[in-house]
Specification:
alpha+beta, single chain, five-stranded antiparallel β-sheet, 32% helix, 7 helices, 260 residues
């Protein structure tokens, strides 16, 4: 199944088109559109309506938006002052849109809250692996950029070999990659599952469409979208998030048949 074959107005088609736009352009608004769709179509509730550039809540037609999902400029200014370094515009925008949404940002490898941001080995750490085996960061020399490149550093036994490797060309894409993973990995009863891959190859499943790759070429991770399912394959495991218990049951039944 290709992007062109996907129905024009489904959750699957919307997330595929939005992610393609985010990867293909330098417009951070395209990246935040992916976040909006993840919340609206693949989580318990949509994001509060807010302008990321101003932090001003919008009236959605059903009442004034609350501050439940986001941090404020005051929160971010305090974090920057404590660090002694500016926060890139992309990070500020992200935290002002969905920084409080733990279901989107902190299921396994959390996006740092403002008061958790830290400087380590010459970089601002914005995300940590849950067991401390690696970090994602922005080099201090790049913090003056609005949407700087990001880097990945594993915690190695031989510290002489430990270094920052390039992760994404833009911080906004690294944050969207994190949101995709954290949303799919989140434990939602009857709507999420995970298992070790055997003979099943999601790349050969005609019911799935491969999504654009955000992570570097050396990463084994792959993303797919199907009929009301998001599929994340980081190496030898598969994580699936469905929009309904029925969609999850249909996918797991089909996968079991293909595997058999």
């Amino acid at each position: 199944m290709t992007d062109a074959q996907a129905p024009a107005d489904t959750a699957a088609a919307r997330i595929a088109a939005a992610l393609q736009a985010a990867v293909a352009t330098d417009d951070r608004a395209a990246a935040w559109r992916v976040a909006e769709l993840l919340a609206a179509d693949w989580s318990a509730r949509p994001l509060d309506a807010v302008d990321a550039g101003t932090g001003t809540a919008a009236n959605t037609g059903t009442g004034t938006a609350t501050d439940a999902d986001r941090y404020t400029d005051a929160d971010l200014d305090a974090a920057a002052a404590a660090l002694g370094h500016p926060l890139p515009a992309a990070l500020r925008e992200a935290l002002k849109l969905f920084g409080h949404r733990d279901d989107l940002t902190r299921s396994q490898d959390p996006l740092a809250r403002p008061d958790e941001l830290e400087i380590f080995e010459g970089a601002l750490i914005f995300r940590n692996e849950n067991q401390g085996v690696c970090w994602w960061g922005v080099l201090l020399e790049d913090l003056d950029q609005d949407d700087p490149p990001t880097y990945y550093c594993p915690d190695l036994a031989d510290k002489a070999e430990q270094k920052w490797d390039r992760w994404t060309d833009r911080l906004s894409l690294a944050i969207i990659d994190a949101l995709l993973a954290e949303t799919v990995i989140a434990e939602v009863e009857d709507q999420a599952d995970a298992w070790e891959l055997d003979d099943y190859d999601p790349g050969q499943d005609p019911a799935l469409t491969a999504l654009p790759k955000i992570q570097p070429k050396w990463s084994e991770a792959a993303w797919y979208v199907g009929d009301d399912v998001l599929v994340y394959v980081p190496g030898g495991f598969l994580f699936v998030k469905a929009r309904s218990p029925e969609a999850l049951a249909a996918f797991t039944d089909d996968e079991t048949e293909d595997d058999g």
